[in-house]
Specification:
The complex is a heterodimer of chains A (about 70) and B (about 475). Chain A has about 70 residues and is mostly helical. Chain A has one domain. In chain A, about 50% of the residues lie in helices and about 5% in strands. Chain A is built from two helices and two strands, in the order E-E-H-H. Chain B has a domain of about 230 residues: FAD/NAD(P)-binding domain (3-Layer(bba) Sandwich), CATH 3.50.50. Chain B is globular. In chain B, helix 1 links the parallel strand 1 and strand 2. In chain B, helix 1 packs parallel to helix 9. The longest helix of chain B has 19 residues. With about 475 residues, chain B is of the alpha/beta class. Chain B has a five-stranded parallel sheet, with helices on one face. Classes of the chains: A mainly alpha (about 70), B alpha/beta (about 475).
Chain lengths: ~70, ~475
């Protein structure tokens, strides 16, 4: 049995994995613009209606199928 | 006069019973049997588990709601089904254990004409040594568990404010768990709250999961069309964790937990251990352990239930390899094949097989996500089963109503930070839940209805859904207009 070598505090940033732990450093990351848009009110109001519409369409499709 | 007995008052049972009461006139009786006195809107336990809500905000007493609706409520635990009746009478009945105040537990038979098994899962903490509340980890499966989790979390926040460094491990506590979505939601909310408390730099947050890849969620992952690409949920989920500096461990079966230490085996067969200050690890699910007996009193549990304790319904339970799995294997009507007046809804029905590809470690340990059937599909199945029974009771001709998870979509809003202006949530829709590679050969799902995005709008929707579904569950005026 091996013991995870993760007790070096946040030392794993240099590599993608420390033992079995994936520090996700090679993952896709959002740009500052994307992060800004995620909480930008006018855009999020629009997304609010868009997501609701998608969910209503999904429910509508189900009701149609399961009549 | 017919009597319909609903076992369980979770999302499936509490959906089925009020619909039955609406569709059947007062000459028929609807009985709900549940060991819990309260209804719990489980998705909001995530917020309760971080001290953002109180128990009263996510749960309410069932008795007054059922009394007002004309539904008989028995706070009791169902223990046995006698689908052929007894030696004295052919009328089927269910045996329940009821705790009489000041007395011992009493066993009571409740006869039925139709039975819905919506007992939900047994939280099988015993499957992993040291797992669960009262042992070495916390959980958010029930309001009590989540309240304890919040206390532990807030105590550690105070310690970090004094300069301590802490490690949080969140995820699944066994190689055969489901509900990875809930664990994912908890870990990103926990990370958000650490930032809100100003102690993020003092914390290390690790997501530990039995999924083969992040974003599997027990449904073999999904593909989403976004920003000009068709992106697997793996990329989406990995990105959400990466931007929050949350580390992850995938393909892990938690074998044992000791105080502050989790021992796990990976799919590669390696053994590891990890220290923690707080661990929120979900248990695997099993059936609640209902037994069944024939008229002569011989046990026929294996006839009604799969070995994991979930009820067999109209699914194809033939053992076959992943490559031969089909959408048609999944049940449509949730009717028990041997006793047509018994149905199972929600988590209580036995899936024919997982949705995700199964994997086994070199030591023979199965490590993969099992099939989710919580939330929206549970409620839809509850309604459809109630419709089928109401039709039978009222003598309507025609086939039973159907809601196969291979024809059913799901909308899931996973909170990733609770704040009216700074919060976010991942909003996902998938259609169908079980991939159908005959209808959608390349991706298994309809990409028009399989979507995902993260943003503040998702958080608003999550908050609205919390209040809307609790309004519906309280059976307030117009509750039927709110979809499942």
């Amino acid at each position: 049995m091996s013991v995870q070598q993760v007790d070096g505090w946040k030392s794993g940033k240099e590599s993608a994995t420390v033992g079995e732990i994936n520090t996700n450093v090679y993952a896709t990351q959002p740009t500052r613009f994307t992060l800004f848009m995620r909480t930008f009110l006018p855009w999020q109001l629009r997304r609010f209606f868009s997501i609701n519409l998608k969910m209503i369409l999904l429910i509508g499709r189900e009701k149609h199928l399961h009549k | 006069m017919s009597r319909v007995v609903v076992l369980g008052a979770g999302i499936a049972g509490h959906t089925a019973a009020p619909y039955l009461r609406t569709w059947l006139d007062k000459t028929h009786e609807v009985v709900v049997v549940s060991p819990q006195s309260n209804y719990n809107w489980v998705p909001s336990n995530i917020w309760l588990g971080l001290g953002l809500m109180t128990e009263e905000q996510v749960a309410f007493p069932l008795a007054p709601v059922y009394s007002k609706a004309g539904i008989r409520f028995e706070q009791a635990r169902a223990v046995a089904i006698h689908p052929e009746g007894s030696a004295d009478s052919a009328a089927p009945y269910v045996v329940v254990e009821k705790r009489i105040p000041g007395q011992s537990v009493e066993r009571i038979p409740i006869p039925y004409d139709y039975l819905i098994n919506a007992t939900g899962p047994k939280l099988n903490f015993a499957a992993t040594e040291g797992l669960g509340p009262g042992k070495h980890t916390v959980s958010v499966c029930t309001p009590d568990h989540a309240t304890e989790a919040a206390k532990e979390f807030l105590a550690l926040v105070e310690r970090m404010k004094q300069g301590a460094r802490c490690r949080f491990v969140v995820g699944t506590g066994h190689g055969q768990c489901t509900c990875q979505g809930a664990a994912f939601e908890y870990v990103v909310n926990l990370e958000f709250e650490l930032r809100q408390h100003g102690v993020r730099d003092k914390a290390e947050v690790i997501f530990l999961t039995n999924e083969y890849e992040l974003g599997d969620f027990g449904m073999d992952g999904a593909f989403i069309r976004r920003n000009g690409y068709i992106t697997p949920t793996n990329i989406f989920t990995e990105s959400v964790l990466a931007e929050r500096d949350i580390w992850s461990i995938t393909r892990a079966h938690v074998r044992k937990i000791e105080k502050g230490r989790v021992f796990y085996e990976t799919l590669a067969g390696e053994e590891h251990e990890l220290t923690f200050d707080m661990a929120m690890l979900l248990p695997p699910f099993a059936g609640v352990g209902l037994q069944a007996f024939d008229r002569a009193g011989e046990e026929i549990t294996a006839k009604l239930f799969a070995p994991n304790g979930f009820m067999k319904v109209d699914a194809d339970y033939t053992q076959k390899p992943y490559e031969q799995w089909k959408a048609a294997d999944w049940p449509r009507t949730y009717q028990c094949p041997t006793y047509p007046n018994i149905f199972a809804a929600g988590i209580a029905f036995a899936p024919p097989h997982p949705i995700s590809r199964p994997h086994t470690s070199p030591k023979g340990t199965p490590i993969f996500a099992t099939a989710p059937r919580t939330g929206m599909p549970s409620a839809t199945i509850g309604r459809v089963v109630a419709r089928s029974i109401a039709d039978k009771v009222t003598g309507k001709e025609g086939p039973l109503h159907a809601a196969s998870m291979a024809e059913l979509g799901a909308a899931c809003v996973a909170s990733s930070g609770s704040s009216l202006l700074k919060g976010t949530a991942a909003s996902m829709t998938v259609f169908p839940i079980v991939p159908d590679y005959e209808r959608y050969p390349k991706y298994g799902r309809d990409l028009k209805y399989t979507t995902g995005e993260i943003g503040l709008a998702g958080h608003w929707i999550k908050v609205i859904l919390h209040y809307m579904f609790l309004y519906k569950a309280r059976l307030h005026p117009g509750w039927r207009a709110i979809p499942e």
